[in-house]
Amino acid sequence: MRVNVVSDVHGRADALARAGEDADAVICLGDLILFVDYADHSQGIFPDLFGAERAKEFIDLRTAGRFTEARAMSADLWAALGGDPREHIDRAVRAQYAQIFAAMPTPAYLTYGNVDLPALWPDYARPGHHILDGQTIEIGGLTFGFVGGGLRTAYRTPYEIDDEEYARKVEALGHVDVLCSHIPPAVPDLLYDTVARRFERGSEATLAAIRRTQPRYALFGHVHQPLVARTRIGRTECINVGHFRGRGTPFALEW
Questions:
Q1: Which residues of 28-38 are buried (b: 16+ CB within 10 A; e: fewer)?
Q2: Phi and psi of 185, rounded to 5°?
Q3: Which of these, 77, 83, 98, 90, lies nearest to 32 by C-alpha position?
Q4: In angstroms, how far is CA 167 from the centroid of its own chain?
Q5: Number of independent structural domains in the chain
Q6: Is 51 contained in some domain?
Q7: Could you read off the pLDDT of 147-194 as tens digits, one per residue?
Q8: Radius of gyration from C-alpha coordinates of the chain
Q9: How confident is the model over 193-217, as pLDDT tens digits?
Q10: Which stretches make up the Calcineurin-like phosphoesterase domain (predicted)?
Q11: 237-254 burial, b for 16+ CB within 10 Å, e for fewer?
C-alpha cells in the first residue's frame, strides 16, 4: 500500500490534482484555504480584498506580535469595505473550497486545519472524500485516527478549540497504527518554525497518547519550516509531512 499525505495546502489546487499519482489513497491534514501568504503578499483572500501593500502591513504587525494593532487595522479595512465581513469571507472561502475539493483526488481521507471552516466542507466534498475528526478508519489493514483543528492562540484562526475538547478527540481514537493530526505533538523541536522564528502550539494530549499507545506513525503538518521534521518517541516515528503549498509534492507512506 502507498498513501500520499499532504498538509497546509493553502490554495494549491494545481499541485493537489496530482497528489494521488502512484498512490492507493490520499490523506489531507487540513489548512486548505489561503487567507494571506506570508511569503507572497499578493496571494490570498486578504490581498484580494485590500491589496498586497495592506497585506504586508498586516503580516508585519502579526509577525511582530502586535496583534491588537493588527486586529484594529483589519477592523478599519473591513469597515471601509462595507457590508458584513462574514459575507465577504464566506464568498471567498467558498470559491477556494470549490477549487480545492474539485482537485482533491479520490479516495481521500481528510481532517481540518486551524484555518479551515468545517461547516462548509460538506457542501464541497465529493463521493470518495471521507471527512474524519476524532474518528478512525481502516486503510490497507492499518487503523488510522484523525484529529483536526488547532489549539487557542493569539492568531485566533477559525478552527482553534479548547485544550479539553482537543484532548477528548484524541482520547476517542484509542489505539491506532497511524495518528493523523494537523498540529504536531508538543515536542519543542517539532514546533519551532525556522523562518517565522517562533514556536507554534502543539498538543500535550497527542504527545501523551503517543507515549501511551505507541502507534507506528504520527503524521502532522502546521509548522511550515520546522527545525526538526521528524523524530522518534519510543517506537513511534513522528513526521511533519511538509508544507504542501510550498513543496507541491506529497509525503509518501508505504507499507
A1: bbbbbbbbbbe
A2: -65, 160
A3: 98
A4: 18
A5: 1
A6: no
A7: 999 999 999 999 999 999 999 999 999 999 999 999 999 999 999 999
A8: 18
A9: 998 889 999 999 999 999 999 999 9
A10: 1-226
A11: ebbbbbbbbeeeebbebe
For residue 12, which amino acid is it? R
CATH code for position 156: 3.60.21.10
pLDDT digits (tens, 9 = 90+) for 214-252: 999 999 999 999 999 999 999 999 999 999 999 999 999
User: H or E element: which one contains 100?
Assistant: helix 85-103
Q: Is residue 65 part of a domain?
A: no
114, pLDDT greater than 90:
yes
Single-letter residue type at 162:
D
Confidence check: pLDDT of 16 > 90: yes
Phi, psi of 122 (to 5 degrees): -60, -25
Does the pLDDT at position 124 exceed 90? yes
List the domain range (segments joined by +) for residue 202.
2-33+104-254
- Would you give the DSSP letter of residue 209? H
Q: Does residue 61 fall inside a structural domain?
A: no
Cell numbers found for residue 69: 494593532
Which pLDDT score is estimated for 247?
Answer: 96
Give the closest residue to 119 by CA, choosing from 175, 159, 152.
Answer: 159
Measured distance CA(143)–CA(194) in Å, rounded? 33
Reference 104, options 80, 86, 125; nearest CA is 125
